[in-house]
Design brief:
The protein has about 525 residues and is an alpha/beta fold. It is about 45% helix and about 15% strand. The chain contains 19 helices and 19 strands. The mean pLDDT is about 95.
Length: about 525
């Protein structure tokens, strides 16, 4: 691939980062790291959404300014992504000056084109969704089904965007491009929503909402979320209709994927697409809507008190790096469905896959290499019995990433390690050594270590730290491109000494877990 680009939804800074936010960022980061091994250039955009009535109200209740609240909570997201080794290329905040200027110019361009008009409106406004709802959108109690609150009746004179003008074009694009909305079963949801769309409000009166980007030509209004927040995907790359368009925009737009939660699919696949059409901008190649992460099979909610942070999980299990959490979250759901987090499931999965299957296999094989051959790979060992299985696994992993099935791709890697563990038990290199069949023993050990070298490169997007530790002991470059991988990754010569062998991942219930004991 020449280039690859991907974005996430930007997180609203009314609160701090939790495990639901982390799921999306880990999911996206795994995809980004994978495609960095296939593309010449790659770009990953994420950030925070920082305007609106909720920020305004929360800041007032806390006795701080909206900007102070945004600065504090944006830092929480940035620090959490650093903790989780999220390898983004750029972090946009919608309070950034360049974004504010670009959004004002986008609004004026749409206004001049006649796609925005002023209109007096009375409707049911949900502050949680930051949008007006129709009666049909409410549950049987008259509440927003997402936030379980009754919307307030709001009457204002606002600017409206001619969403209905683009309805047929959007329908046509979705039907002609089956990969545009993924998973594909989500496309019908969007087509159903398109049946009854109306023009949408894209500003709020400053008398009601003063924390937002001013309309340049009408300072009595602030620009609403649909033009403000959604425009981050192009402003974050350097788009501005009235200024110099940056190199990143020219190089990486349209993006390969917008990664978003299923609850905001409508806004991205209808509102955002119509705005891009109105701006005569090429559409993103695909919008992928993932499911939610449940906590012990219940929806995460502040009211039920089951909101947990990634940091708390890492502290509870004394994790030195985020790989176990990254791996679990990235494999928690299949095909865009909902996933589930529980402490027991987390512990069981990472112990089985990372500690027992991968870590223990590498550790005991390296120890045998040192014990029988002083850590040396001899020329006549280089003949991998599992090379066909390795090639098959690589091809399957690439195909599954192209289908956005990253949980299934991880399972293919684990299946390869399962087969390698079975191979060790079947060939019994310790028995070959006892029988003084040293060449046969060496070839078995080489086969295993060669599989581990390929596995380290394949697993790196999920577990960058573990993969690095594996690669260091195997003397390979874990960041190499997939195309540069060879059948035989490990060269002849001294590979490792006893002192260089270290476990790459310890069981979560290990007696030697814990920072002090590890040190």
């Amino acid at each position: 691939m020449e280039k690859f680009s991907i974005t996430t939804a930007i997180d609203y800074v009314n609160g701090e980062a939790h495990i639901g936010h982390a799921y999306e960022k880990i999911f996206t980061d795994v995809i980004f790291r994978h495609y960095k091994k296939r593309a010449d250039k790659a770009f990953f955009l994420t950030g925070t959404d920082e305007h609106g009535i909720k920020i305004q109200k929360t800041a007032k209740s806390l006795g701080v300014t909206p900007k102070e609240l945004c600065d504090k909570n944006a830092a929480s997201f940035i620090n959490t992504w650093k903790l989780l080794d999220i390898d983004y290329s750029h972090f946009i905040r919608t309070t950034d000056d360049y974004h504010v200027a670009a959004v004002q110019n986008i609004f004026e361009k749409l206004l001049e084109k006649g796609d925005i008009y002023k209109h007096k409106y009375t409707g049911l406004y949900c502050s949680g969704c930051e949008c007006f709802l129709a009666e049909k959108d409410l549950d049987e109690n008259g509440c927003c089904p997402i936030h379980n609150k009754k919307p307030e009746v709001v009457s204002e004179e606002n600017y409206f965007f001619k969403l209905t003008k683009y309805k047929e074009r959007i329908i046509k694009h979705i039907k002609e491009n089956p990969k545009f909305i993924q998973p594909e079963f989500r496309a019908q949801e969007v087509l159903n929503q398109l049946e009854n769309i109306e023009d949408i409000s894209v500003s709020r009166a400053k008398t009601n909402v003063n924390w937002g980007i001013e309309v340049k030509s009408d300072p009595s209004q602030v620009i609403y979320v649909w033009i403000d927040a959604l425009s981050n995907y192009i402003t974050g790359l350097g788009y501005n209709p009235e200024g110099n368009i940056k190199e990143d925009y020219n190089e990486f737009w349209p993006v390969n994927y917008h990664i978003i939660g299923k609850d905001i699919l409508k806004f991205h696949s209808i509102y955002w697409i119509a705005i891009l059409m109105a701006l005569d901008i090429e559409l993103p190649k695909s919008i992928y809507a993932h499911g939610w992460i449940m906590i012990d099979k219940s929806k995460m909610s502040k009211s039920t008190g089951n909101v947990i942070s990634p940091k708390s999980v890492m502290e509870a299990f004394n994790l030195d790096n985020p790989d176990a959490l990254r791996y679990f979250m990235a494999t928690a759901a299949i095909g865009g469905k909902d996933g589930n987090y529980s402490d027991d499931d987390f512990k069981e999965k990472v112990n089985a896959d990372l500690a027992n299957n991968m870590g223990n296999l590498l550790n005991r094989t390296l120890n045998m290499l040192v014990k029988y051959f002083d850590g040396e790979i001899k020329e006549d060992f280089i003949n991998s019995d599992l090379s066909d299985k390795v090639i098959e696994t690589i091809n399957e992993v690439l195909k599954l990433f192209d289908e956005m099935e990253i949980a299934l791709a991880a399972q293919k890697i684990i299946n390869l390690l399962d087969e390698t563990n079975k191979y060790v038990n079947d060939t019994a290199p310790w028995a070959l050594a006892k029988e003084e069949k040293m060449t046969e023993c060496g070839r078995v050990l080489y086969t295993v270590l060669n599989v581990m070298a390929h596995a380290a490169i394949l697993i790196e997007p999920y577990c960058p730290n573990i993969a690095f530790y594996m690669a260091k002991q195997l003397k390979i470059d874990v960041n190499q491109k997939f195309a540069s991988m060879k059948d035989n990754m490990i060269n002849a010569g001294k590979l490792i000494s006893k002192e260089e062998i270290h476990p790459v991942f310890l069981r979560l219930d290990s007696e030697i877990m814990g920072a002090k004991k590890k040190a």
